[in-house]
From TrEMBL:
Residues annotated as domain DUF4350: 83-250
Keyword terms, alphabetized: Membrane, Transmembrane, Transmembrane helix
Name of the protein: DUF4350 domain-containing protein
One Pfam family recorded for the sequence: DUF4350
Organism: Nonomuraea bangladeshensis
InterPro entries associated with the record: DUF4350
Length: 416
């Protein structure tokens, strides 16, 4: 079915003589019902992404305020007599000093050995041995209290064996005859469980195997090992008999050498400091291995390298003419009854071709295009707006009429 070329039918099936109300008369700019440029503008990009930008700015602002307003605290140091955090032991150290016990905080085995040579017997409290020489610590005479399964425990307490299964840290009863534990009663004990030598006091038993406190006498004094030092921290000290147990184990009246991790750990000794360079420590064939690897990489780079040459025209297996492509797409639109998609394509193409001819800038609004086209061709502005920005055609006949009317306007603009 063909439609008259003179535009006797308006888009949508209405007669051209009847008034057609378009959305362009209500909403300024490009109407949503018609074709519009798909390239995003600055305004559309801001409208679509402003919520995400505002939420991101809010999150950043909250994070910055949290950092600025948060109290500035140093890193927590577990079982440190100078640390006031929940993991520190400042409260226990103050209680001991109030009972007249001298507390000397050291961070190396050398400092602990120097204190042992000045004055009488002392108690060595070991809370960390990562940067300390355990053999130098084991050579210090006197009583010692070791907290946890520390590196070097075999040298500090060779008679104690560690139980593989750990004990959950909780409130436990002593169940032993050790006076310090019996006087304290229940305490927050757990962590590593141990087995001691014959005659050792085994307290605070684990539910499976071993005990979390072992105390025994040796030639140089008394050695006590506890599986966990939580009962000595500022957080747990007021609970159960934790304070009494800690005071009974440490506050024996002797000065205490409290060994902690160094504030500034020393740098590990490098191989060069022993008179050997890095090349001296390498096997003899490493140098030739590196050379062979470099040669292999170079050969692979030359083999797999790609150099750009001149552009080569590739012969296509099938040459399809443009007219056939357009015809095939039109048949697809017709088979799927995609009249709206086809109308949008026709309208977008017409607007793109007429905009520069009308002296308008790219992306001009719908009102500007309609007014300029009506003034140039003498057509009614309502009919022009309905053709360019109206609703989709109701049937195939209306789509054909729309195509004819758009072609008519293009020819009129070209002839003027």
């Amino acid at each position: 079915m063909s439609a008259p070329v003179d535009g006797s039918l308006a888009p949508g099936g209405a007669a051209l003589g009847e008034p057609v109300v378009t959305r362009d008369e209500v909403v300024p700019g490009d109407p949503p019902g018609g074709s519009a440029p798909t390239s995003p503008t600055l305004r559309s990009t801001w409208r679509s992404g402003r919520l995400i930008v505002l939420l991101g700015a809010l999150v950043v602002l909250i994070a910055v305020l949290g950092v600025l307003l948060a109290p500035q605290r140093g890193p927590s140091r577990a079982l440190d007599p100078a640390d006031t955090s929940l993991a520190g032991s400042r409260a226990l150290a103050e209680l001991l000093r109030a009972r007249g016990v001298q507390i000397d905080r050291v961070d190396s085995a050398e400092a602990a050995a120097r204190l042992a040579t000045t004055g009488g017997p002392r108690l060595l409290l070991v809370t960390d041995t990562v940067y300390a020489d355990e053999y130098a610590l084991a050579a210090i005479p006197g009583d010692r209290l070791i907290v946890g399964d520390l590196p070097g425990l075999a040298a500090l307490a060779p008679e104690v064996r560690t139980v593989p299964e750990a004990a959950r840290t909780r409130s436990r009863e002593p169940e032993c005859a050790l006076p310090a534990a019996r006087a304290a009663g229940s305490a927050y004990m757990g962590g590593t469980a141990f087995e001691g030598p014959p005659g050792a006091a085994l307290c605070y038993p684990s539910t499976t195997e071993g005990h979390t406190l072992v105390s025994y006498s040796r030639a140089g004094g008394t050695t006590t090992v506890v599986g966990d030092g939580s009962f000595m921290t500022n957080l747990r000290l007021p609970e159960d008999g934790n304070a009494a147990l800690a005071l009974n184990l440490i506050g024996t009246g002797r000065p205490v050498t409290w060994l902690v991790r160094p504030d500034n750990p020393p740098v590990a000794e490098l191989p060069g400091e022993r008179g050997q360079s890095l090349s001296d420590l390498m096997p003899d064939n490493v140098r030739w291995t590196v050379y062979m690897a470099l040669i292999a990489v170079a050969v692979t780079a030359l083999w797999r390298g790609r150099r750009l040459g001149p552009v080569v025209t590739e012969r296509l297996p099938v040459v399809v003419r443009a007219a056939e492509t357009i015809e095939g797409r039109g048949r697809l639109y017709r088979a799927r009854r995609a009249r709206q998609r086809a109308a949008e394509a026709l309208r977008a193409g017409t607007i793109d071709r007429l905009t520069p001819r009308l002296g308008l800038a790219t992306g001009a609004g719908g009102r500007e295009v309609v007014a300029a086209l009506a003034a140039r061709t003498g057509q009614d502005a309502h009919r022009v707006g309905a053709a360019l920005y109206g609703p989709p055609p109701a049937d195939d006949a209306a789509l054909v009429a729309l195509a004819a009317y758009l072609d008519l306007m293009e020819r009129q603009v070209s002839e003027l």
